């Protein structure tokens, strides 16, 4: 298994002199087309090439192109002592063999157990599992990272939900931290009900990389599901917990004005006590992904016009009946059926060829072709037994100077 941060200085030879003689604009155009793993190796060839990779024009141009191709997939392995990050660059062909490569985390000694909060425009946000104060913004390919300052809460926090995103209007990355206090578990959770002594049930803080400070937004009257927020239209989205909100609401956080609001969800016409759904982003639209109670189908609804309830459309219905008789391997079919029945299927993203990438059973990737109605396992050598998968755009993006 290769490592992305092994620095081997390659002989420059004639290639260096050729690149030096090219006009800068042409060089930027050529280099911006490299995959991120090649671009990282490129910077170690010579000083001239290294300087080129720090050109803000290259950062912008490469990121623009990277957003239009298949994403990298970041894998976080689960380990009882020390967790690791790996990545794979997806090709344009589902049948290709992909190689998993390790990412060396420069701050792993200070945060052995962590969660991937989210990925946005080339940057990852990681938070500590046991230390709620440990939060890092991190470019896994350049190894640049920033530890966020401590965020103080009024009471001891029992549980934390994080979010990470970027808004183009403000050109700022923000981290959202929602801390829930222990006494919420002994009170009726409702936006309108109060409980003994009027103690706050939660406390919301937002951190802006631009100002480098946390700001207290007060209490949030929703109990959000502990999952990465889905970024659509400059807003992060979560589903509320069933135990406190019987309707399983969708709640958004606007990264422009730092405001929460409910977003209308589709009329599933099912009892959500027996079904579950999660959120995703496809084609830049908010999606709800419903796993039916019989363990036979995955329904994908797309909100074609943001925040318009009437714009919800059931676009895809992926299930056993829709793929019967198709040309697919028994292994793909068995994994798909088992994942459906266990409710472990997650919609990740849409690939360049129009297929939908699904995460089944924690790290097994399957591509679903909507036109052929075929499921194909993405073959990856060296995969750990259990891991969390996150789509990620590989980029040279800097934390100090966000694009």
From TrEMBL:
Pfam families associated with the record: F-box, FBA_3
F-box domain boundaries: 21-58
Record InterPro entries: F-box-assoc_dom_typ3, F-box-assoc_interact_dom, F-box-like_dom_sf, F-box_dom, Gal_Oxase/kelch_b-propeller, SCF_F-box_component
SUPFAM superfamilies: F-box domain, Galactose oxidase, central domain
Domain F-box associated beta-propeller type: 81-384
Official protein name in the record: F-box protein At3g07870-like
Organism field: Nicotiana tabacum (Common tobacco)
Taxon lineage: Eukaryota, Viridiplantae, Streptophyta, Embryophyta, Tracheophyta
Gene: LOC107778971
